[in-house]
Design goal:
Keywords: Coiled coil, Transferase. The chain has 356 residues and is α/β, with parallel strands linked by helices. It is built from 12 helices and 10 strands. The chain has helices at 3-38, 46-58, 66-90, 129-141, 166-179, 193-196, 213-220, 236-248, 276-283, 292-296, 302-311, 338-351; strands at 105-107, 110-112, 118-122, 146-148, 182-186, 202-205, 226-229, 254-258, 288-291, 316-320. α1 crosses α3 (66-90) and α4 runs parallel beside α5. The mean pLDDT is 95. Bound molecules: phosphoenolpyruvate and manganese (II) ion (MN). Phosphoenolpyruvate binds at residues 124, 150, 186, 206-208, 229, 259, 291, 294. Residues 124, 294, 320, 330-331 line the site of manganese (II) ion.
């Protein structure tokens, strides 16, 4: 064998040796990633990286320059970090990869996520006992079992009606008991969650709070179904991660709700991202609802959007109903009155598989 061949053979041997070492290092990095996951931390640690680089450079006798060595090792570190990330993504608790079967959320005996669509109606805001009871009566008359109503209203203007607060939750509880309905209401601050669980059956986290991480963690710490709405400008990945915040704290009873996202289009209040429904169904095991009211802001679009949502596999629909929308204290232009609600239900039932 020529001298050149011998040298090349040795380089080949070293390449294989390096490959083994790099992969051995990768396995250790993965192991570290799993330990970090159980501790609830995942993050790039610059201090650790600096000390690893210093140790390497201290041991560098050349011929490579320190800067070259640093560059090579930074690439190895980066690849390791990517591996940890992938491991973490694969392991998202809300993902289908983690749990292939559908999650079914039980709300006072009503099962959300079984394939039978569930419909949630009610006023935008709780305004009075009579107002909520009137809608509850209409909901009950149709054989429906779920009612919505906001007691804490996150309004765009601080001068608009902010909701009745605890008084509103008490009204919801009274109506829920009298009509045997499950009630859903939005909570906006972590410190109200403990109180809210005594009054309502589902805690809603609204679009404006989808990335209020302290609220998500507080919602994850209670034993109560959570309805999480997609943020106004949230990507699907951010939405899924928001749900993960809740589940990471131990509460897996999560219902996702697509409610439209902000785009340049002004014909509708928001743009209903209908493709989010099958994507969320594929990527997560959680039930997915569509709020046709806030996504469109238009009464004339409630029915077609509800049909579209069910056609693409939504587990249910949410829409606002008010006894007299013209005098509603919030969202007066988009809520259905009782007659419109009757028509909506009749048409939805005649044109889809919705049966109640
Ligand atoms: C609501 O459902 O009452 C509401 C305020 O909706 P969103 O958070 O989706 O705007
Ligand atoms: Mn509303």
């Amino acid at each position: 064998m020529s001298n050149l061949d011998q040298l090349r053979n040795r380089v080949d041997e070293l390449n294989v040796e390096l490959l083994k070492l790099i992969n051995e290092r990768a396995r250790l990095v993965q192991e570290i990633g799993r330990v970090k996951e159980t501790q609830g931390v995942y993050r790039y640690d610059p201090v650790r990286e600096r000390s690893m680089l210093d140790l390497i450079k201290d041991n560098n006798d050349g011929p490579f320059e320190n800067s070259t060595i640093e560059h090579i090792f930074k690439e190895i570190f980066k690849a390791g970090l990517e591996l940890q990330k992938d491991d973490h993504r694969k392991a998202l608790l809300v993902s289908r990869k983690k749990k292939p079967e559908d999650t079914i959320v039980d709300v006072k005996g009503v099962k959300v996520g079984t394939g039978t669509p569930q419909l949630i109606f009610g006023p935008c805001a709780v305004e009075s006992y009579e107002q909520v009871a009137t809608v509850a009566e209409a909901v009950k008359a149709k054989g429906l079992r779920l009612l919505r109503g906001g007691a804490y209203k996150p309004r765009t203007s601080p001068y608009d009606f902010q909701g009745l607060g605890l008084e509103g939750l008490k009204i919801l509880k009274r109506v829920a008991d009298e009509y045997n309905l499950g009630v859903i209401s939005e909570i906006v601050s972590p410190q109200d969650i403990e109180t809210a669980v005594q009054y309502i059956d589902v805690i809603q986290i609204g679009a404006r709070n989808m990335q209020n991480f302290e609220l998500l963690k507080a919602a994850g710490a209670v034993d109560k179904p959570i309805l999480l709405k997609r943020g106004l400008s949230a990507t699907i990945e951010e939405f899924i991660n928001a749900a993960e915040y809740i589940m990471a704290q131990g509460n897996g009873q999560i219902i996702l709700c697509e409610r439209g996202i902000r785009t340049y289009e002004r014909a509708t209040r928001n743009t209903l991202d209908i493709s989010a429904v099958p994507i969320l169904k594929q990527e997560t095991h959680l039930p997915v609802l569509v709020d046709v009211t806030h996504s469109t802001g238009r009464r004339d679009l409630l029915l077609p959007m509800a049909k579209a949502a069910l056609a693409v596999g939504a587990d249910g629909i949410m829409a606002e109903v008010h006894p007299d929308p013209a005098v509603a204290l919030s969202d007066s232009a988009q809520q259905m009155n009782l007659k419109q609600f009757d028509d909506f239900m009749a048409e939805l039932q005649s044109s889809t598989h919705v049966r109640v």
